[in-house]
């Protein structure tokens, strides 16, 4: 796997330090609330498992799975719900935990869907933000890192289901996905 990485963008140490800070911030902000963390399978799971151990409040976890069509390095915003939440979020404080926001198309679909279930509040926590690529405007309440327009893998993020278990975030060598339609 390592030979496919062009450059390490965020080291394991940098990620762990930032996740800890985010956990502390969330713990402060949600004290006394009924916090439900909603994670989007599969990429967000690695971040989620570290994040919850940095949160000092009682929390609930729930999962959604969505699938987006199109080439694997690009999202077209055509999203299908594959797995729904197990529990009701009505009147509860929901924080969506994402690995990365790119165009924002995937998350905007998800937020509209969750909003319709009338949570008390609905927030977004993303580890990575490729804000230069944003098409749909949205408020990101908690953000790990802003990253440039590069395709990254590791720490949950994949290319063709590979590289999720790398402990750092690296830029994938372009020749790995060459031939695909990448912007
Ligand atoms: P969006 O709908 O364009 O915001 O796409 C978000 C989704 O695209 C993420 O949840 C990832 O699954 C995928 N994605 C976007 N950029 C990257 C990347 O650099 N590496 C791996 N997956 C990415
Ligand atoms: Mg994802």
- The spatial strand order of the largest sheet comes to 4-3-2-5-6-7
CATH topology: Rossmann fold
What is the distance, rounded to the nearest whole angstrom, between the alpha carbons of the first and last residues?
23 Å
Radius of gyration equals: 16 Å
Please tally the β strands and state the result.
Answer: 9
SSE order in H/E notation?
EHEHEEEHEEEEH
Highest-level CATH class: Alpha Beta
By CATH, the architecture is named 3-Layer(aba) Sandwich
How much helix, percentage-wise, in residues? 10-25%
**Rough outline:** globular
Number of domains: 1
* Content of β-strand: 25-35%
Strand pairing plus helix content: what structural class? alpha/beta
- Structure ligands: inosinic acid, magnesium ion
DSSP helix count? 4
Q: Main sheet, how many strands, which sense, barrel?
A: 6 strands, mixed
Tag the structure with descriptive keywords.
183 residues; alpha/beta; Rossmann fold; 6-stranded mixed beta sheet; 3-stranded antiparallel beta sheet; 9 strands; binds inosinic acid; binds magnesium ion
């Amino acid at each position: 796997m390592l030979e496919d990485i062009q450059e390490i963008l965020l080291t394991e140490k940098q990620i762990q330090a930032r996740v800890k800070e985010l956990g502390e911030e969330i713990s402060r902000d949600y004290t006394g609330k009924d916090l439900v963390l909603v994670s989007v399978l599969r990429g967000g799971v690695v971040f989620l498992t570290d994040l919850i151990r940095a949160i000092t409040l009682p929390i609930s976890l729930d999962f959604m799975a969505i699938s987006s069509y199109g080439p694997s390095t690009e999202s077209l915003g055509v999203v299908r719900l594959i797995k729904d939440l197990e529990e009701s979020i009505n009147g509860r404080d929901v924080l969506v935990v994402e690995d990365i926001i790119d165009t924002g198309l995937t998350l905007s679909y998800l937020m509209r869907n969750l909003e319709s279930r009338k949570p008390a509040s609905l927030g977004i926590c993303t580890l990575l933000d490729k804000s230069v690529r944003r098409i749909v405007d949205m408020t990101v309440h908690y953000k790990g890192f802003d990253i440039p327009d590069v395709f990254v893998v590791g720490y949950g993020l994949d290319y063709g289901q590979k590289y999720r278990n790398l402990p750092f975030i690296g830029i994938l060598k372009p020749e790995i996905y060459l031939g695909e339609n990448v912007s």
